[in-house]
DNA sequence: CCAGTTTACCTTTTT
DNA sequence: GGTAAACTGG
């Protein structure tokens, strides 16, 4: 390895170079979209190694996605020959898991602890509520799950949570009970991985000292997405800033995970608490044409709380952004398909094109249109491989092999496929378990009568599985379990079970390639205490929980890419469509209620816009089917925030010329039947005083809006209006001064 | 007492 | 449109 490696640094601009070659000290890099962030991060690591400022084992690099971690590793090994295995590179959850496996005893966990993903966590909570006879109407499991996770992410155990009334006291009590249940079953949820390893470092001085001395350089990707606990974890590991040099890369404008506890405030806190000497801004964008960047800059300027940054490019302005107003979501989808066809006639590949939307529910219409047109497409999102029910069932059996006391897994498959163990027997079992303070599996011996015999049969099945699996390689273990459990038989008899059968086979294949991968890069004899001797099965189950799989999109074929804006973060495409630019959808209505909610939505829009290299299409629809009912939306404020000269309207701008209702009709049916249907429905409802659902109206105080609902007649007539800036309101027509806009 | 059928409910984003 | 709880028949 050369002492100075000019080739490493060639092609970097001045700011990138400054960031990469900073002397070892704390640094905050504000890296705008498309500014070469990942390159800076990986080159920084390579530079530290090449300069001899650190050995591989001194490096800890943390990312948010497995994908980012893999990419970093791949790029790094391409840059210089290095034993990446002795570096700690991974997601927060992955690294915490590694820490806890190595120190499970000190952390108070069984060696074989299992990881609950969120759906496992939810069912664990439901089971808990049932066993404590808690009314799940009063304490909805989802709320409780959010409550528990939010507190864990703040670093708060039940004892630290403030309770001021009976209700909050009860919730804290349930939080405590949930912890006990997890501890008894030997399982940890996602947030627990973080909190437990934080507490391990905090309380165990030898362990803390060991890692503080080992890691001299901590590099953090997507720093704006860290939550409070992750920040404290980093701070602890760097000995409050006195130890490892922390190199944090982030973009406050791309912070889009506040909803799950991410705290942009960490960037300010880091600057202050670590006394970061200087902040380096990467503002040159290598991705997008000028007009696209101008639009992105114009949008994000509307946010008040920013560290401040303005992207620029040496590329030309490029094309204007194309805007399309559709009569309906179906129309929007049809237009997108037409446009894609035109692009392909121009010689564009489908894989250059991405369709972005705010929420997954929007993909269906787009998929339908693409499918009907025979255009290949790939959807990112939705169910991932390890989240499919047949896979989760198979994994549950595997978990029971490793740990029969895993009640979540037990409850999941005890009667699946059905084997005559009904609700009644399970109730008795749960009662016995509570009475004896033991797991469901252990409670079987305390039963009597029929319940005991059927459950002992099940227990015997598990024993036979374990015996049959002994000594087999992992893929064969899985195959054996799938067979013996009756899962294969069950899906064979199910008319719609063919895909599921194929997935179960795929699980065996996945295990085979997982084992092969592990063999190629064996966990090197780590200098850490008790190098995790987890065994293939535990490693595979951990892999399944932490990396739920590639969002089910097959590689290879040339296909249009469909995904949510969140999923698109970090990606780039030559041509991007952002669809559904409507108030209530994007920005999402739920976000309007939250403080700073609109700002987060705006950052989301900023992320969406900056995905495009050459061409950006923006579209919205007047009516949209959502959750089975038609909604009448007005154009998103974000579209209004883009300067008009950057835009090219593909549809006439009639927005002030009449109601949505009127111009749907004016288009003379050429835009499909959807607007007509809305029209007819409105007429049939005998709307009062000449107002119709879907019509644009003006109000002295609230401004412009669209009527989305109506009821009553005469003096009692009321309409619900969705105002651009004031939100949705019910107004009595006799009182409110509404005028057609 | 269990198993298949119907109904209800939900969906903003996810490691 | 898809799953999980409630229902009802065997």
TrEMBL record:
CC per GO annotation: cytosol; DNA helicase complex
Keywords per UniProt: ATP-binding, DNA-binding, Helicase, Hydrolase, Isomerase, Nucleotide-binding
GO BP term (any one): recombinational repair
Gene3D superfamilies assigned to the protein according to its UniProt record, in alphabetical order: 1.10.10.160, P-loop containing nucleotide triphosphate hydrolases, PCRA, domain 4
Catalysed reactions, semicolon-separated: Couples ATP hydrolysis with the unwinding of duplex DNA by translocating in the 3'-5' direction; ATP + H2O = ADP + phosphate + H(+)
CDD domains hit by this protein: DEXQc_UvrD, SF1_C_UvrD
Domain of life per record: Bacteria
UniProt GO molecular function: 3'-5' DNA helicase activity; ATP binding; DNA binding; hydrolase activity
Entry EC number(s): 5.6.2.4
Pfam families linked: PcrA_UvrD_tudor, UvrD-helicase, UvrD_C
InterPro entries noted in UniProt: DExx_box_DNA_helicase_dom_sf, DNA_helicase_UvrD-like_C, DNA_helicase_UvrD/REP, P-loop_NTPase, UvrD-like_ATP-bd
Annotated family: Belongs to the helicase family. UvrD subfamily.
Family matches, as PANTHER family: ATP-DEPENDENT DNA HELICASE SRS2 (PTHR11070:SF2), UVRD / RECB / PCRA DNA HELICASE FAMILY MEMBER (PTHR11070)
Name listed for the protein in its UniProt record: DNA 3'-5' helicase
UniProt source species: Sterolibacterium denitrificans
Lineage per the UniProt record: Bacteria, Pseudomonadati, Pseudomonadota, Betaproteobacteria, Nitrosomonadales
């Amino acid at each position: 390895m050369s002492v100075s490696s000019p080739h490493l640094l060639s092609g970097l601009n001045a700011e990138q170079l400054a960031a990469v070659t900073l002397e070892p000290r704390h640094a905050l890099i504000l890296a705008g979209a498309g500014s070469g962030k990942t390159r800076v991060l990986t080159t920084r690591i390579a530079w530290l190694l090449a300069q001899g400022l650190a050995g591989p084992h001194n490096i800890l690099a943390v990312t948010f996605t497995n994908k980012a971690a893999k990419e970093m590793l791949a790029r790094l090994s391409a840059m210089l020959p290095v034993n990446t295995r002795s570096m700690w590179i991974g997601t927060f959850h992955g690294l915490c898991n590694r820490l806890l496996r190595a120190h499970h005893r000190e952390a108070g966990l069984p060696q074989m602890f299992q990881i609950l993903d969120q759906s496992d966590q939810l069912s664990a909570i439901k089971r808990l509520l049932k066993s404590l006879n808690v009314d799940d109407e009063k304490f909805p499991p989802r709320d409780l799950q959010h409550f528990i996770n939010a507190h864990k992410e703040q670093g708060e155990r039940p004892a630290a949570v403030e309770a001021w009334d009976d209700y909050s006291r009860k919730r804290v009590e349930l939080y405590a009970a949930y912890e006990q249940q997890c501890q008894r079953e030997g399982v940890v949820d996602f947030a627990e991985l973080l909190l437990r390893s934080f507490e391990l470092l905090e309380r165990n001085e030898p362990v803390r000292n060991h890692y503080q001395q080992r890691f001299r350089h901590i590099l953090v990707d997507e720093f704006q997405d860290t939550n409070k606990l992750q920040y404290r974890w980093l701070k602890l590991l760097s000995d409050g800033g006195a130890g490892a040099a922390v190199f944090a890369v982030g973009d406050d404008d791309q912070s889009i995970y506040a909803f799950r506890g991410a705290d942009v405030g960490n960037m300010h806190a880091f600057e202050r608490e670590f006394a970061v000497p200087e902040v380096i801004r990467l503002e040159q964008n290598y991705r997008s044409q000028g007009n696209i960047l101008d639009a992105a800059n114009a949008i994000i300027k509307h946010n008040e709380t920013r560290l401040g940054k303005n992207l620029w490019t040496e590329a030309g302005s490029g094309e204007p952004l194309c805007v399309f107003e559709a009569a309906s979501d179906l129309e929007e989808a049809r237009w997108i398909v037409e446009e894609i066809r035109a692009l392909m006639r121009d010689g564009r590949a489908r894989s250059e094109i991405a369709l972005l939307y705010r929420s997954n529910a929007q993909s269906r219409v787009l998929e339908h249109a693409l499918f009907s047109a025979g255009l290949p497409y790939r959807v990112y999102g939705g169910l991932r491989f390890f989240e499919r029910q047949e896979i989760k069932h198979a994994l549950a059996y595997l978990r029971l092999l490793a740990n029969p006391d895993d009640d979540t897994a037990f409850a999941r498959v005890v009667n699946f496929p059905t084997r005559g163990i009904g609700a009644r027997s399970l109730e008795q079992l749960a009662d016995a378990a509570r009475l004896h303070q033991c797991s469901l599996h252990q409670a079987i011996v305390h039963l009597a009568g029929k319940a005991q015999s059927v459950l002992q049969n099940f227990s015997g099945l598990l024993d036979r599985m374990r015996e049959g699996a002994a000594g087999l390689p992992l893929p064969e273990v899985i195959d054996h379990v799938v067979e013996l459990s009756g899962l294969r038989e069950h899906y064979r008899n199910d008319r719609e079970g063919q895909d599921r059968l194929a997935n179960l086979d795929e699980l065996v294949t996945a295990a085979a390639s997982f084992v092969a991968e592990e063999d190629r890069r064996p966990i090197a004899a780590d200098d850490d205490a008790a190098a995790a001797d987890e065994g293939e099965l535990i490693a595979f189950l951990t892999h399944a929980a932490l990396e739920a799989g590639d969002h089910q999109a097959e590689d290879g074929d040339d296909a249009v890419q469909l995904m949510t804006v969140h999923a698109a973060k970090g990606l780039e495409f030559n041509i991007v469509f952002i669809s559904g630019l409507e108030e209530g959808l994007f920005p999402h209505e739920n976000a309007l209620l939250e403080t700073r909610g609109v700002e987060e939505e705006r950052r989301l829009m900023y992320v969406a816009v900056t995905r495009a290299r050459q061409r950006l299409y923006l579209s919205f629809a007047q009516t949209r089917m959502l959750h089975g009912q038609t909604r009448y939306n007005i154009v998103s404020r974000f579209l209004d925030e883009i300067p008009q000269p950057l835009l090219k309207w593909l549809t006439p701008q009639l927005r002030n010329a009449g109601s949505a209702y009127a111009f749907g009709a004016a288009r003379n049916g050429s835009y499909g039947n959807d607007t007509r249907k809305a029209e007819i429905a409105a007429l049939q409802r005998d709307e009062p005083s000449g107002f119709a659902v879907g019509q644009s109206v003006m109000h002295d105080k609230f401004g412009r809006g669209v009527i989305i609902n109506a009821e009553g007649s005469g003096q009692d007539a009321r309409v619900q209006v969705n105002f651009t800036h004031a939100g949705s309101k019910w107004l009595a027509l006799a009182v409110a001064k509404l005028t057609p806009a």
